């Protein structure tokens, strides 16, 4: 014999479904999953892949003002920064950082002549550059722990662009995207 | 289940105890951290703030500095500012109130207290914006503190450039 569900029975069914939707069939397991997920997110996005929002135009056209990226802090545990890497550089901490491209490696001499970059006197090919500049910057000799970083947007005056020698300990991570 | 509840309650109790201890007996690092945050709040003002409110907050700024303080601010693309005493800091704080608005934040504060427990150095990131500007001024500052009469006062502020051409 079949009976139609009573209004109160229907409400009970809805509450049961809502409970399953909210906390799952096994609430303890759901709680454990939530804790694991929260800890994983905290570790990943707090230490390994730092979310960053690009502000300013110094990395145009590669990265636009307002775009979102991640700073991969793990990559430089295994290797040192390479030429062409886009890296994040700390100020007093990691909440606000600079984003620049590495063009000079330790021990090298970097110079800008009519917008072209010369490393130890040899012209550096920069395929990521869309517009040439007219920068003339005297040669800078890098120490054993120094890298030379610069933005991709060289259309602005070099006096208005933050670039130059940076010590290795300030380089936090590599842009992921 | 009972064991779980007991452990959780114990952990909560320990956390509450730590919180109470830190609130009533803050470490020098925490005190300096709080002072810098208070300084940022007092240095900031908005366009909607009245003249009196602006003057009151500006007058609080010198109180964070020692009478003899060296302030050397050299921001890219801006004129260099050097102050040698607290009176100049007060004048600069009042002069800044003539603008449309100023927002000052220290998103990163790293404090190292020296072994004598009487002096400390803070590496901070300054994030400031004048109301009339489109972009933030971002600069690293090295701030030296000296403990005087149970108060941590700023004795030196120097801007640090992470990138150099020298």
Indicate the topology.
The complex is a heterodimer of chains A (177) and B (166).
Chain A: H1 7-23, H2 27-48, E1 49-53, E2 68-72, H3 75-78, E3 86-90, E4 97-104, E5 109-113, E6 116-119, E7 122-123, E8 137-141, E9 146-150, E10 164-167, E11 171-175
Chain B: H1 2-24, H2 28-43, H3 51-60, E1 65-73, E2 81-83, H4 86-96, E3 102-113, E4 119-130, E5 137-148, E6 151-160
Parallel strand pairs in B: 1-6
Antiparallel strand pairs in B: 1-2, 3-4, 4-5, 5-6
* Helix and strand element order of chain A: HHEEHEEEEEEEEE
The low-pLDDT segments of chain B are none
Helical percentage of chain A: 10-25%
Q: What is the tally of beta strands of chain A?
A: 11
Assembly state (oligomeric) = heterodimer
How big is the Rg of chain B? Answer: 19 Å
Mean residue pLDDT of chain B? 88
Between the first and last Cα atoms of chain A, what is the distance in angstroms?
Answer: 63 Å
């Amino acid at each position: 014999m079949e009976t139609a569900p009573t209004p109160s029975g229907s409400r009970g069914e809805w509450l049961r479904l809502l409970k399953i939707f909210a906390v799952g069939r096994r609430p303890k397991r759901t709680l454990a999953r939530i804790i694991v997920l929260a800890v994983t997110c905290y570790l990943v996005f707090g230490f390994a892949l730092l979310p960053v929002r690009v502000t300013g135009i110094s990395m145009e056209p590669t990265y636009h003002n307002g775009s979102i990226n991640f700073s991969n802090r793990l990559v430089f545990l295994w290797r040192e920064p390479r030429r062409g890497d886009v890296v994040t550089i700390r100020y007093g901490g990691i909440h606000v950082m600079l984003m620049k491209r590495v063009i000079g490696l330790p021990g090298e001499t970097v110079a800008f002549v009519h917008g072209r970059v010369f490393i130890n006197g040899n012209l550096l090919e920069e395929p990521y550059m869309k517009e040439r500049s007219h920068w003339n910057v005297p040669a800078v000799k890098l120490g054993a722990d120094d890298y030379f970083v610069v933005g991709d947007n060289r259309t602005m005056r070099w006096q208005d662009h933050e670039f130059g020698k940076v010590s290795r300990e300030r380089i936090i991570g590599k842009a992921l995207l | 289940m009972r064991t779980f509840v007991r452990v959780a309650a114990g952990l909560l109790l320990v956390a509450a105890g730590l919180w109470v201890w830190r609130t009533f007996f803050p470490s020098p690092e925490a005190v300096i951290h709080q002072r810098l945050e208070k300084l940022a709040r007092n240095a900031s003002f908005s366009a909607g703030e009245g003249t009196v409110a602006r003057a009151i907050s500006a007058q609080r700024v010198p109180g964070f500095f020692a009478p003899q303080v060296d302030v050397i601010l050299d921001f890219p693309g801006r004129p260099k500012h050097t102050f040698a005493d607290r009176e100049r800091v007060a004048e600069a704080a009042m002069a800044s109130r003539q603008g449309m608005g100023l927002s000052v934040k220290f998103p990163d504060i790293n404090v190292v207290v020296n072994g004598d427990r009487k002096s400390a150095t803070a590496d901070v990131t300054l994030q400031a914006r004048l109301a009339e500007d489109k972009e933030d001024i971002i600069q690293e500052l090295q701030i030296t503190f000296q403990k005087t009469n149970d108060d941590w006062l700023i004795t030196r502020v120097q801007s640090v450039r992470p990138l150099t051409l020298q």
